[in-house]
Amino acid sequence: MRETDVGRSGLLLWQVLLVLAILGVGVATVWGWKNFTPERPGPERFVSTDADGSSQSSKPTGIPVQTVRPGGGAERVATQPGSVLAYQTVQIYAKASGFLKTQNVDIGDKVKQGDVLAIVDVPELTQSVAKAKAVFDQFKAKVEQMKARAKSAEAEHQAARASIAQAEANAKSSSAMLRYRSRQYDRLKELFDSRSIDERLVDESKQQLEAASEAERSATASVATSKAQAAAKEAKIAEAKSDILEADAGVEVARAEHERLKVQFDFATIAVPFDGVVTARYIFPGDYVRAANESSSQPLFTVQRVDRMRVIVQVADRDVPYVDVGDQAVVELDALPGQSFPAKISRLSQTEDPLTRMMNVEIDVPNPSGRIRQGMYGRVRLVLDKASDQLSIPSTCLVGRSQNGKASAFVVRDGKAKLVSIKVGDDDGVRVAVTEGLASSDQVIIRPPSNLTEGLAVVPQSEDAPKSSGGR
Question: If you write DSSP's letter for every residue of 398-415 in order, what string do you get?
């Protein structure tokens, strides 16, 4: 065979093999198309049966939706911005005017209660205090003098009363002598009438009778004089007691004036009322200081108590009924990232601002390290109501708006969406409490699509774990 014939035979063989390969690929493609249906992603596939009993797969039907099962009741939580203030802030004034003599502290100094911050030089007030003290001492001495006079008057009164007793005794003695002389005179006169005695004896007896009568009148007068003297001494006692009362009143007036001036003088020494930090200083030594009751007066220092701080929060109207003293709070400050300060609500203003419809709430936060400063800003999480056993769902499950405690939500029943009516309770913006209409086993559709209608087939994509707390 010639070389040309051999080459033609080999080329023909390659052509035949190429045709057979093309036919094989075609047959395989046809067979694969008939026996394979590509799977589409989805949670389930629906199977149909042919007339001859063979089965084949079909595409899933229904709208994919995300579901959640109702969980426990939600905490009512409010998160609001908060501002930090010192627990106590006081501006310290001088009570007395004068020149600043001594300044013992400056801005940033820590002080203890009773520490002297500054001393004001008040020479005129010093003299006034000394004068008032002298007047006070003078009135006290006058009181003692009046008391001595009263004692003297009482002694004289006692002596006058004794002289009355003596005068009355003399008067009784004179009366007895007068009676004796009168009887003696009568007896002698009878004897003279009977010519038994001489007339001279009768005359002597008459003279003695007259003398006794004069003595008796003198004794009676002496009694009256003693009584008058005693009355005068008693009046002198009353006068002395009145002088004592007047002197006592003078003492009290002088005491009050001295104490008033002394208090003003003491205010020239400026002391701090509590432990804290000097946050502002407005004067320097040598400056003229005006008393607080004078016009154009200004404070000397500002002192703040910072071992405990007040965090001021404004709570919205919808949360106000749930706020109580003692509710838990967590404070986070922008200036101290990564730190939180657990605390409790300390006090409420008990009224809302009519313009903002917000109520002020104060939270005391311990600050032993002093890192929290007045003016810092952050957020406060208030736990207004603890989680309950009541069911709750995310607020995004609700269809439309709830009115009068009634709302609607879609649940999955037999692969279809069913719109159910429910009764709802508290809604904190994240979760809403459900009081009626749902069971814990229900699959509730979250964020239902706008085209979802009653009875439409749905395919649950996932199911969130039940939640029991929420917040704003």
Answer: B-S--BTTEEEEEEEETT
- Element spanning 121, H or E: strand 116-121
Number of domains in the chain: 4
Q: Comparing 27 with 391, which gets the higher pLDDT? A: 391
What distance in Å separates the CA atoms of residue 262 and residue 108, rounded to the nearest whole number? Answer: 31
Range(s) of the domain holding residue 460 = 68-74+389-464
Distance, in Å, from the CA atom of 93 to the CA atom of 292, rounded to the nearest integer, reads 6
- Is 271 part of any domain? no
Quote the strand ranges of 10-62, DSSP E.
Answer: 46-49, 55-58
Of the two residues 160 and 3, the one the predictor is more confident about is 160
Domain presence at residue 26: yes
Q: For residue 382, give the nearest of 42, 26, 71, 76 by alpha carbon.
A: 76
Tens of pLDDT, residue by residue over 67-85, are 999 877 666 788 999 999 9
Here the tokens at position 101 are 């003599």
Task: With beta carbons less than 8 A apart as the criterion, state whether 119 and 270 touch.
Answer: yes
* Residue 291, domain member (yes or no): no
Confidence of residue 29 (pLDDT cuts 50, 70, 90): very low
Q: Does the pLDDT of residue 16 top 70, yes or no? A: no
Does residue 402 share a domain with residue 453? Answer: yes
Spatial distance between the Cα atoms of 278 and 286, rounded to a whole number of angstroms:
20
Domain containing residue 399: CATH number:
2.40.420.20
Q: Which residue, chain included where needed, has tokens 């006070």?
A: 136
Most confident of 18-22, 293-297, 333-337, 426-430: 333-337
Tokens of residue 409, six digits: 């939500």
**What per-residue confidence (pLDDT) applies to 462?**
63
Answer whether residue 429 is part of any domain: yes
Candidates 403, 433, 440, 406; CA nearest to 420 is: 406
How far is 283 from 103, CA to CA, in rounded Å? 9
| Domain final residue pick, 385, 418, 446 | 385
Is the torsion defined by CA of 78, 81, 84, 85 positive or negative?
Answer: negative
- Tell me, yes or no, whether 306 and 419 share the same domain: no
Residue 403: both structure tokens together: 């009115």
